[in-house]
Specification:
InterPro entries: Acyl_transf_3_dom (IPR002656), Acyltransferase_3 (IPR050879). By secondary structure, the chain is mainly alpha-helical. It is built from 16 helices and no strands.
Length: about 400
């Protein structure tokens, strides 16, 4: 069995192992079951299920990239379109999910949208898990380098500060430091740009009050585009993927479209379009593949469970822990595929050995992601709610004094 082959057998095996591990966690650990039952309320269940497939799809994509790297020493995209697209299309759909959820909330709440809660929640959603991961990266860099400074302390501090805003410079001259986490944080810059510009887009399209406001908001959007992308320019063809989520937010508000989306015919069309994108394109971030992806996403957002594939409890739990899965899988792959062979008599260049290690990673990733969600992500989100309430009370008290 080889990752360079055209067979998707090993990818199916990896999904099966992850789903089985998730099922076992739900069966034997009541805390996992309780969390899934609690978070299922007032949620787009179909979108939650989709998240589970997407986050693990990125893991499969990066596993294939690591397979190329351990054999050639070069980080390169897999030659097979499926293994390239399962990561690219997954990220595009993740961006659509972000835009769909928040634009839907904006349409629903209008001027009553809780901007303070939104801003605080985003900080406490991204950083509680990211900061421990960054500490692991810094520790690993200096461990590999025998605790020796190759750059000055100030230079290292500057590099770490850049990582805090999701850039990935090499730390202490450790080549390809970002490769330790599969460089996944590039997507967080796009998420941050979307979060920061959301109120401006709302004032342009939802809170319209004259052309002067529109012009000022457009200038602000451009300024944020330059600010967030100051180190590595934000690419317009990637930003287009957010439009698919906005389109879906309007799609699900058309009863006729929702009714059709929940039919078997729509489910078949959604699966066919996804198959076409995964097998016939080498890019997802281009106008036509993004247009294609918007259709199955809109169908799924309308509640189509794709013949039960999105309704599985194990998949919905994988969706719940998807941020951990996405953020941590690169570091796990680095440990298992690049560091472990230096400690044990195994050769990750051998196809069977690599696939066995990837299979082990599939299971470990579900366990680790469950633990980090329960004990880092969830407490972080709860703290964010408390922080937002505290700030709201302070602001209200100040207004009363004035």
């Amino acid at each position: 069995m080889s990752l360079s082959s055209n067979s998707v057998l090993w990818a199916v095996m990896a999904y099966a192992l992850a789903i089985a591990t998730s099922s076992l966690l739900l069966r034997f650990f009541p805390v996992v079951r309780r969390n899934l039952e609690h978070t299922s309320k007032n949620r787009f269940t179909s979108v939650d299920g989709l998240r589970g497939y997407l986050a693990f799809g990125v893991f499969i994509h990066h596993s294939a990239i690591i397979w190329v790297f351990v054999r050639t020493g070069v980080f390169d995209m897999p030659k097979d379109p499926f293994y390239a697209q399962i990561g690219l299309a997954s990220v595009a759909l993740f961006f659509m999910i972000t835009a769909f959820l928040f634009w839907s909330r904006l349409i629903q709440k209008g001027r009553d949208f809780d901007w303070l809660g939104f801003a605080v929640s985003r900080v406490f959603r991204l950083y509680p898990l990211y900061l421990p991961l960054l500490l692991l990266v810094i520790f690993s860099v200096f461990y590999v380098q025998d605790w020796t400074f190759h750059d000055s302390v100030l230079e290292v501090a500057g590099q770490v500060l850049a990582w805090l805003v999701f850039d990935r410079p090499d730390i202490n001259q450790f080549t390809q430091t970002g490769g330790m986490i599969a460089n996944v944080t590039w997507t967080l810059s796009y998420e941050v740009f979307f979060y920061m510009t959301l109120p401006l887009f709302a004032m342009v399209f939802l809170y319209r009050q004259g052309w002067q406001q529109t012009v000022l908001c457009l200038i602000g959007i451009y300024a944020l585009y330059q600010l967030v992308g100051w180190e590595h320019s934000l690419k317009k063809h990637i930003l287009m993927s957010f439009l698919g989520g906005v389109a879906a937010a309007y799609w699900v508000r058309r009863p006729a479209l929702v009714a059709w989306s929940q039919t078997r015919q729509a489910g078949v069309i959604a699966l066919l379009v996804l198959l076409i994108v995964l097998t016939l394109f080498r890019k997802s971030f281009a106008f036509f593949p993004l247009l294609l992806l918007t259709l199955p996403f809109s169908i799924i957002a309308s509640g189509n469970m794709l013949f039960g594939a999105l309704a599985l409890r194990s998949i919905r739990w994988m969706g719940e822990i998807s941020y951990s899965t996405y953020l941590l899988h690169g570091f796990l792959l680095w440990l298992m595929m690049q560091r472990l062979p230096l400690l044990l008599p195994i050769d990750s260049k051998q196809p069977l050995t690599f696939v066995l290690l990837a299979a082990l990673c599939s299971c470990l990733l579900m366990v680790i992601s469950t633990l980090t969600f329960l004990y880092i992500e969830k407490p972080g989100m709860a703290t964010g709610k408390k922080a937002a309430n505290w700030l709201r009370q302070k602001m209200q008290a100040r207004v009363q004094v004035l």
